Amino acid sequence: MRPLPRGSKKNRGISLGLLALCLAAAGCLQSQGVSLYIPQSAINATVEEDILLSVEYSCHGVPTIEWKYTSNWGAQKIVEWKPGTQANISQSHKDRLCTFDNGSIQLFSVGVRDSGYYVITVTEHLGSSQFGTIVLHVSEILYEDLHFVAVFLAFLAAVAALLISLMWVCNKCAYKFQRKRRHKLRESATEDIELQDVEC
Ligand SMILES: *[C@@H]1O[C@H](CO)[C@@H](O)[C@H](O)[C@H]1NC(C)=O
Ligand SMILES: *[C@@H]1O[C@H](CO)[C@@H](O)[C@H](O)[C@H]1NC(C)=O
Ligand SMILES: *[C@@H]1O[C@H](CO)[C@@H](O)[C@H](O)[C@H]1NC(C)=O
User: Fold this and answer.
1) 74: domain CATH number?
2) Helix (H) or strand (E) holding 85
């Protein structure tokens, strides 16, 4: 009679232990997760603008933040840092990038070449990580306007040149015509004089 209740007590103890273990594991998994919030995942900009690639993360401890830039020319790591320490910025982005403790980066005076995908990876001390992407499109509206103006001016110049050459040709024609007429007039006048001479 005795061993039975003891056994059930043991079983209950084991299942309680398992439950506690499961809860602990779940808690562990939850606490390991990195969450990343990106308010604007697509940004349109024009050249010379300063662009904030804004993000915010939450995790346990101090993570490592890394930004990669991907475009048609390939992928490249542009910056890596731990919040609160000096950032390791790639040579291509030195002097034109600054970092914020919330994981955001700012690009100064962007050019059309900066268009592309910016991928942030936040890696926690324990190894779990999370990534997010921001698409940046930089257009050269100002330059396009200038281009249009230049084409328009060239067109005007061409039309003006055409008109001037036409006028020159017309002028030449008219001059020739006049000279011919004057010549004919002079000829007829001399004939008249000759005729008069003969008559005299
Ligand atoms: C950016 O421009 C594209 C067209 O070039 C447009 O479809 C898109 O909605 C714009 N995005 C934002 C965030 O203004
Ligand atoms: C991150 O920090 C920068 C600078 O303080 C701020 O401008 C930006 O709004 C922050 N991003 C988010 C998503 O809160
Ligand atoms: C900075 O990054 C480069 C290449 O990504 C690496 O070789 C260098 O050791 C890094 N420097 C520091 C201080 O982490």
Assistant:
1) 2.60.40.10
2) none
Q: Note down the domain range covering 198.
A: 142-200
Note the pLDDT tens digit of each residue in 123-157.
998 889 999 999 999 998 765 667 778 888 999 99
Check pLDDT > 80 for residue 174.
Answer: yes
Mark whether 66 and 80 lie in a shared domain. Answer: yes
> Cβ distance 108 to 52 under 8 Å?
no
Using the mean position of ligand 1's atoms as its centre, give its distance from the Cα of residue 133 in Å: 16
Q: Which atom of ligand 2 is nearest to the CA of 52?
A: 7
Q: What's the structural domain count of the chain?
A: 2
| For the CA of 36, the nearest ligand | 2
Extract the tokens encoding 47. Answer: 């050249």
| Residue 24: inside a domain | no
The amino acid sitting at 200 is C
Give yes or no for residue 61 CB within 6 A of ligand 2. no
Between CA 147 and CA 140 the distance in angstroms is 10
